[in-house]
């Protein structure tokens, strides 16, 4: 057997063996409130050969209104970002919130005694079709205590995993999973435990 042919056979055998050993890629449900493992994200979001720049930019601009709404405490403006029947898993202690009116009410109550500054950084947007998209966006959320908690600061690091739908020519988040990354140092626990307890009671009341 000639050397080039022999090498071709070896490469084929090696590729087949590696494929057999590789674990199957998990089935992903983008509308689920179970976050996607960070390990799976690179394979799930490949670099597109022909990216939809227009849709991606509209999604990026829409998501930019989330920090503006939260930090400005204009929770009504979250209607610019979320669909009316959106489902958002904000992880413990807030958990799964739906619909938009509940998301607005719970976020407003849980952040009542702090001011915030949300910064968005690393981001990948995958446009799935003319009316669907998925994005992963890293965030840093800094919380500044007010009143008796003035001077207290808590910083949260994580990512938003968002499933988007196109509604009336506007992109809206249909499903969100907030994933914390690293430790979050909640020093002023009395403030946040009271706020979160009230938030959970509110969820129960409006559900």
From TrEMBL:
Q: Which InterPro entries match?
A: NTF2-like_dom_sf, SnoaL-like
Annotated keywords: Signal
- The signal sequence is 1-19
Boundaries of each SnoaL-like domain copy?
A: 55-177
CDD domains in UniProt: NTF2_like (cd00531)
Which SUPFAM superfamilies does this one have? NTF2-like
What is the designated name of this protein?
Answer: SnoaL-like domain-containing protein
């Amino acid at each position: 057997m000639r050397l080039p042919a022999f090498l071709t056979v070896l490469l084929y055998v090696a590729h087949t063996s590696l494929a057999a050993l590789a674990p199957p890629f998990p089935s992903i449900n983008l509308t689920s409130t179970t976050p996607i493992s960070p390990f799976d994200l690179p394979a799930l979001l490949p670099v597109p050969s022909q990216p939809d720049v227009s849709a991606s930019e509209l999604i990026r601009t829409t998501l930019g209104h989330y920090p503006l709404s939260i930090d400005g405490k204009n929770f009504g403006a979250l209607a610019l970002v979320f669909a009316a029947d959106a489902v958002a898993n904000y992880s413990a202690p807030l958990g799964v919130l739906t619909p938009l009116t509940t998301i607005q009410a719970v976020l407003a109550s849980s952040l009542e005694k702090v001011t915030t500054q949300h910064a968005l950084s690393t981001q990948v947007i995958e446009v799935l079709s003319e009316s669907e998209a998925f994005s992963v966006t890293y965030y840093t959320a800094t919380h500044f205590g007010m009143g008796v908690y003035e001077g207290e600061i808590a910083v949260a690091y994580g990512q938003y995993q968002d499933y988007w739908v196109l509604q009336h020519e506007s992109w809206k988040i249909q499903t969100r999973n907030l994933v914390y990354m690293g430790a979050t140092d909640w020093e002023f626990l009395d403030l946040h435990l009271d706020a979160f307890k009230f938030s959970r009671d509110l969820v129960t009341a409006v559900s």
